[in-house]
UniProtKB/TrEMBL annotation:
The keyword Transmembrane helix applies. Residues 1-29 form the signal peptide. InterPro entries: Sel-1L3, Sel1-like, TPR-like_helical_dom_sf. The keyword Transmembrane applies. It comes from Poecilia reticulata. The lineage of its organism: Eukaryota, Metazoa, Chordata, Craniata, Vertebrata. This is Protein sel-1 homolog 3-like. Residues 1035-1058 are annotated as: Disordered. The chain crosses the membrane at residues 1006-1028, 1076-1097. Keywords: Membrane, Signal, Transmembrane, Transmembrane helix.
Amino acid sequence: MTWFHTSVSGFAFTACFFLAASVLRGVSTHRDAAAPDSFIGFDSVPDKVADGSVVRVRYQCSRPCQLAVEVVLSTLRKTDLVVFRRKWISSTPQTLRVQQVLLRLPPSVSHHHRRRFHGSAADTQNVTLQAWLDYLTKGSEIGSVAGIHKVQRVVRLSLWPGTAPAGCPSWSAQLAAWLTSNDRIHQCPYESDVVDLLKFPLASTGEHFGVVRRFRPFISGTLERVRLRAVTEPSTAFSVWIYLLKWCQKKHCGIIHHVDEEHLFDSVLMQLSETGDIIIQARLTTGEDEAFRTHLMLPLWKWIRLDCYILDSKVLLNVTWDAKSHRFEYVFRNSIHFDDTDGYFVIGGGRYMPGFAGYFGPFKYYRLGTDEIRNQLHPMSTAQELDRAHMACQETRTFAKAFLHQVAESRRLSPTNEAVCSNDLLRRWGQFDNREPTCTQTWSVETQQIHNMLFRVLQGVEEIIQREHLSMKNIRSILFELTVGAVFLVEGKQIKIPSESMVLLQASSCFGNHRASLLLATIYLSGLGHPADREKGHAYSLIGAAGDDRFALMHAGFKHAHGLDGFPQDLDVAYGYYSNVGSQSSTDRSRMHEHKQYTPHFIYLGNEDDLNSLTDESSDVFQYLQYQAERGDLESQRRLGTMLYWGQNGVSKDIASAVKWFERSAMQMKDPEAVYDYSILLMKGQGVKRNYTQGFQLLKKAAAMGSINALNGLGWYHGIVLKDHRNAAKYFEQAALNGSDDGMFNLGIYHLTGENPDKPWKNETAAFKQFLNASRFGHAAASVEVAWYLSTGSLRGVSRDVERAVTLLQNVCKQNGHLGFMMREALQAHLQGAWEEALVKYILAAETGLALAQSNAAHLCEELGVGYDCRWRYRNHSILNSDPHPSTLLEIGDYYYYSSAGTRGNSLSLAEQAVSMYSRAALAGSPQGMFNLAILAQKGHVLPRSVLDFFNASRGDGVEAVMEKILNRCAEIEDDEAVTPCSAALLGLQMGRAWRSVTQSRAQLLLAYAAIVSMFVFVVVVSLQGCLERSGRASAPRRRTPSVSQADRADDPGRAAGNSWLTVNERWRLSQAGDLAVTLSGACLTAFWTTLLYHLLRQTIPSTATQ
């Protein structure tokens, strides 16, 4: 057989499988289209969908099935919102039926107010009616086999008829109640004048950070008339529990204060003095301010209840602790002016007043007054657990101080030292003698027995304590470091935490190491290696937050932002915690070069590419960079200086070496940013001796060379060093106009303070605009300022938006240098093989709400095999962030998707959650997420509008059109040199479409069938020719045997070929016929594949051209 036959054979066999599959698919498609067994569709749909509309659904089931009709709102959120769903079961197969469905929509949907729902804008754009059908097999649901949806015309909700019922709650509250209640009858809730300002304890650090609360007029006309009448004749009451850790460190500390729209203190202010007295201040109807002071020193470490009644011009104050009450009464000269809707209230510290160090307990506010305040402290509450923890800490600190005092007096406290009260039997027996005891220590035997574990650890480091004169601050760090590496012991598939580790963590927390407090809180809340105890977990969370620890504050903010682990969801409280860390992060950025801070470097442990990108001083990449820098390469010098200065890519910080490379790159005078970097180091004296003169000269050169940052630097130099505010403002304005975020922020400060001589007045609106612009570039200090305005709503023209304020501060906190340092330590521990220590440190970072740390903690839990709870706790926490790792989204999406297949009641909701997870992964650029979305779209699932917009698709596009757009985008970002799932799926989709185009013509369909027959003919002929060739080769030796006579050959011509059963002529004719059949088959196949290729190119070329 010739080489031509061989090539044609390979070609035919390669195409046979694809062609047969396409034929079967085409035949199946034609058969389904011709006689569908199951069908569902809309028989009639109104032009506009409203409450009470009726739709008619026509359907037919081939066997018992479940059907449903849904109304979906398209919102600005990433997933669509199902506001109506009606299900029914059809038990009559093979019968065409029509079902009439009455749509009952929430009243809040029909009468829409532009409010917030679940924290996101819910401005509805359109509605989608969709119907679906599921088969029932033995009482269980199986995946959707038929589905159809119809997109209605866009209807603005504000144009819908009717008005909202008067005196009813907001759209968001109504819709939430509608979705969670089986009662669809519209009811207005009871409106109360009693407000729980705090239900859960609040930690206060004694700084300018607290909880902002605003009050709106009553919805009820009757209550609002009473409130307005009480503005000049008030009748109101407050009741709050407080727990003092320290007395006020300033002249006055805020318990609660009221700030009006003019940024002035209004009624009522309750403050704490530095001597422990309470001061109450009020504004009178005459416009004057008046205050009185209670001469009563409040105790520390006790829960104190303050009840304040305001009646016209009289104030009654009851102070209670240890079941004892102290009553104070004061009458002001005139009636008190009290309007709680004017401005905002602050619990604890605010911008204009610091708070106290301690805790707030339950806080109740009676807007229209009360005869009796009911505000009890539950005996089993977190508040009581806080008190127990602090009492235990006082004993621990007393014991440790006594130990350190003994060591300071050079008395070695070894077990054999007579100065130590031993607890053995002989010593107890000897107590009956008349001899004087030799024990000189200041603690009792019982105390030593209680703190036995701590005592033994302190004995172990006694020599170090004595030699280095360690204080309590040093001891707490030693205890924490001793514990971190061994706190989690992996035994089998469980985490075990030794009791000794818990004791040392509690001691470290008592001594002021609040990373230990956070770790204890995590252990008690999660139950990792220790029985869960939610009250203790809450207590240690609050202890860490009150200790002003960045991680503990972020932890509390994250829990309150999402309502996790028993923390109530409260964005105002979350803002209070995050604002503290945001302010610290802004300050930390100016000291980022310090060794305890690192720029967060995001390495996902489950991604080999991330791990391979790491480098260090001994790596080839670093050595090559250093080699290039030594040769004078400017970019290498700058890059090397940056890596050493900030500690990037796994390189340790080396400020001195970094400054050397910054100087060498700057002195080339080629790169303005290099000149600027070195000039700032000179002016700030970081890593080099401060030199204002040289720094200023380099700064001017950098600005002249075009550095925008240098313009801001010149403004800083003129304003801070030269006190030339006029020129400083000009430089800041130039920098801001050219896109410098620092310039925008500094210009905003000048607007806010009015220090610009050319514009000597305060302009908060102009300042806010500059802060807002800078925050969009990620400027930390500007974000903190914008968040304050958004949380208070105190600037005219700026609506209150606490959710946005929290989001801004979360982004700032995630860039904190101390968090970056913890992430770096965790990564180093992982690279060194200390996975248990790495897990502890990743968990500490994960509890702050950092998505990458949560993903890495979950990854380590899985690698260590320590159980389901640990892994899924942090995966579930991770997806609450705006930027979770795509792999986490995919894994949770898989969980929802495969769970939906075996769940009867809520299979659709689980599938929708899977779509949501895959959608978020796809929007984050994950090819796997895009591939999964394409598969779900093929199976009839409706994709969110935001996803369709991302792929330039719409609800009007067919399923294959949506799939093609998704797979095209996926294939673009995958590896072009490999056959990827997306590219293979895209090819299959296009091949299927091309095949359907071929089968639309009878002639082309006939050609396809002929091609299939040709392949069978080809196979048969080639096989027959092979047999003939083998038989011919087998007969060749017999022809070389001794010859017979001429007469014999003449008598039997059929034996001319030896013993073969075919003559030569017959074989020749059969060979010619086979060649002809192969030629015709090849021609037929060539014609078919040419036709198929033509249709395939028609499908692919236009889509490529449009992109």
